[in-house]
Design goal:
28% of the residues lie in helices and 36% in strands. The chain has an eight-stranded mixed beta sheet, with helices on both faces. Strands 9-10 form a two-stranded antiparallel sheet. With 186 residues, the chain is α+β, with helices and mostly antiparallel strands. It has helices at 22-29, 32-35, 46-61, 107-122, 137-145, and strands spanning 6-8, 13-16, 66-72, 75-86, 91-98, 127-132, 149-160, 163-173, 177-178, 181-182. It is built from five helices and ten strands; from the N terminus they run E-E-H-H-H-E-E-E-H-E-H-E-E-E-E. It starts with 5 loop residues before the first strand and ends with a strand.
Length: 186
Amino acid sequence: MRLAQNLETTNLQLRVLTTAELPTLFELWSDPQVTHFMNIEPMQSIAEARQMVDLFSQAADGDSAVRYGIWYQQRLIGTCGYNEINWQLQRAEIGYELVTKAWHHGFGTELVGALAADVFQHLQLQRLEAYVLPDNIASQRVLTHNHFQKEGRLRHYEQTDSGFSDIDLYSCVAGLDIGGKTLDNN
């Protein structure tokens, strides 16, 4: 497996999800405030959380995706990871969500920075992408703080509970000097 089992930042530990975290994951993924910006409905049972973790485990076994639990002071506060990795095209898509109590503390910026460093330095990929609903201002700020640039809007790209929604595409590319910081994969 090329994908790291654990990543660490100054304040966070990112660990591959396991079924041991199911009660907390169900609480996270059943919160309508959290799932509002995700492409899932709030979960109704712990069995749905188990299915999600099993799906992530299968993808990680094939090195095509991975989902990490975000740990802060020995508490699971969210998940993040690579929703899709295309090794041939050397790109990955990230996603993340935090419990509402962890919002506005800088954790999103910190975890996205860790994923970007892993993508460019360890995985040696060329491009990192994120798809964001236009009204998710907090996520847009997290991405721009991590040198992502908005590439454009994909119209009626994703189906949500209220119909089809536009999605904004953000990306970060290896080797570009953005704001004085070189994002390199060498």
